[in-house]
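Summary of Year 1 activities. Much of the first year was spent building the evaluation harness for sequence design. The harness presents a backbone, in tokenized form, and records the residue chosen at every position. We chose the following record to illustrate the format because it has been used consistently in internal testing since the harness was completed.
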């Protein structure tokens, strides 16, 4: 019997087909292949398991990294970008391994070959990294060479200005050279630093080559400080390059200053003797100072003896100051200072004579008095005494200073000087003969009032009275007398001009009023 054994109403239901292939058995080799293929950065592991969106994400991440990294420059790829990309690849590898563990490959049955291909493809990012590293290194080299060139421009520009104006730029350039040599010692730029330093030294110290010795001192001193910070292997013989030049500059500048009568030669010679005591230029300091003293001594006999004396005084002070800072040369410098001092003392006589001839009688008197105090055994003492007396007389009677006094004494005409004053009186006279003496005060005399002198018949030194007096012998001619209270520099001196002739006896009378008067 045919028909449905379960009855006419019984039906069969077929289960639906699965939406995707069932998971494959776990396969570690397959998972490793997907993971390693994803490490290439191209998402090829996702392609094998048909995860196209994730593969596209890998491409996008790689393209973004390339846009950030290229073209290669000295700054390189930002660390954040590299770290982010590395984390992304690691996650892609881990996720790819999980996905490939139970997912059949689109390249069926070829997991070992896919793994081998993944290993080979790792050479792509590795090679890219090496290539980028080389490009980055070259960019760094170009950047360092650019820095070197900019520093060179600063040095070149500085050569067109004074050292003081260019010092800041020189310092900036030196900082660049130092950084290249120390921080980038293996770079092509660092290899060029030694040659650049030669140019640097020659440029900074160019004033020496132009024989501008005073201007060369500061830059040469500056160059001596460079080895404190710059590696000596970068400098070589340049380490000692400024020394001889600085010693020469200090000497030449000091010598020029000394010859021109300027004061800073002491500083220059002091620096030289202190910094380079054994150098050739240091050995020339004492001879240079001796020559300056000799020139000043010779000038005492010239047309400006007072200026020469002043120079000798100044040399004595300056040389003494220098000897105090230069122990090695102190003995010889002390001798030069002593000679300048003695020559200055002796030169006061010539200075006083010059002042007298110029009509500056007050200065001449002061200078001659100083000469007498400074030179106890000079052969010019007698003439100096008489010149001092004549200069003092000429301050009251200028006609007395028309001629220098002589050392003559005595004469055929007697002149008696009496003191009709209660004060001691100093009598000075000059003319054919010059001299001075002091008369004691008259105990019975008084100081006359101005009214007394206006009375008819007023006559001091009346006859019949015993006045302090002194008689001197003078030659024929005009003699100028000045009387002044002894020791009183504030009183107005009295004066008289006596024209002496043979056959006469003369009397000179000194008396005091409100001012000092005289007569004969």
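For this record, the design step produced the sequence shown next.
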């Amino acid at each position: 019997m045919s028909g449905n054994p379960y009855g006419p109403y019984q039906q069969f239901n077929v289960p639906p087909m699965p939406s995707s292939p069932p998971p494959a058995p776990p396969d570690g080799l397959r998972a490793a292949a997907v993971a390693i293929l994803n490490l290439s950065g191209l998402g090829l592991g996702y392609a094998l398991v048909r995860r196209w969106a994730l593969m596209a994400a890998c491409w996008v991440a790689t393209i973004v990294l390339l846009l950030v990294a290229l073209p290669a420059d000295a700054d390189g790829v930002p660390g954040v970008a590299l770290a982010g990309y590395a984390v992304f690849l690691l996650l892609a590898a881990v996720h790819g391994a999980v996905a490939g563990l139970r997912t059949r490959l689109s390249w069926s049955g070829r997991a070992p070959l896919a793994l081998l291909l993944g290993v080979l493809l790792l050479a792509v990012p590795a090679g890219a990294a090496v290539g980028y590293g080389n490009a980055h290194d070259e960019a760094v080299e170009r950047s360092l060479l650019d820095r070197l060139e900019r520093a060179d421009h600063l040095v070149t520009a500085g050569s067109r200005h004074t050292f003081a104006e260019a010092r800041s730029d020189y310092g900036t350039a030196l900082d660049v050279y130092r950084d290249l040599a120390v921080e980038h010692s293996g770079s092509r730029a660092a290899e060029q630093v030694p040659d650049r330093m030669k140019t640097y030294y020659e440029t900074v110290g160019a004033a020496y080559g132009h024989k501008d010795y005073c201007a060369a001192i500061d830059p040469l001193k500056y160059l001596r400080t460079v080895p404190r910070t710059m590696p000596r292997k970068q400098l070589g013989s340049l380490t000692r390059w400024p020394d001889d030049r600085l010693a020469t500059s200090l000497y030449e500048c000091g010598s020029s200053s000394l010859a021109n009568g300027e004061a800073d030669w002491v500083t220059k010679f002091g620096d030289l003797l202190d910094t380079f005591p054994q150098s050739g230029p240091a050995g020339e300091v004492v001879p240079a100072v001796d020559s300056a003293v000799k020139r000043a001594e010779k000038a005492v006999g010239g047309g400006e003896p007072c200026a020469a004396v002043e120079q000798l005084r100044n040399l004595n002070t300056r040389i003494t100051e220098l000897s105090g800072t230069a122990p090695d040369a102190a003995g010889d410098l002390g001798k030069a200072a002593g000679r300048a001092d003695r020559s200055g003392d002796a030169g006061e006589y010539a200075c006083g004579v010059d002042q007298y001839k110029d009509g500056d009688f007050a200065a001449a008197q002061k200078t001659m008095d100083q000469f007498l105090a400074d030179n106890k055994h000079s052969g010019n003492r007698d003439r100096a005494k008489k010149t001092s007396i004549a200069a003092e007389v000429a301050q009251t009677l200028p006609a007395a200073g028309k001629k220098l006094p002589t050392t003559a004494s005595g004469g055929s005409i007697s002149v008696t000087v009496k003191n009709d004053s209660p004060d001691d009186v100093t009598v000075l006279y000059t003319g054919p003969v010059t001299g001075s003496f002091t008369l004691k005060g008259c105990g019975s005399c008084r100081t006359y009032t101005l009214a007394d002198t206006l009375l008819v018949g007023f006559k001091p030194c009346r006859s019949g009275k015993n006045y302090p007096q002194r008689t001197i012998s003078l030659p024929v001619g005009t003699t100028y007398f000045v009387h002044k209270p002894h020791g009183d520099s504030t009183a107005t001196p009295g004066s008289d001009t006596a024209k002496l002739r043979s056959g006469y006896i003369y009397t000179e009378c000194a008396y005091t009023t409100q001012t000092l008067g005289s007569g004969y």
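The chain has a mean pLDDT of 83. Quantitative recovery figures across the full test set are reported in Table 2.
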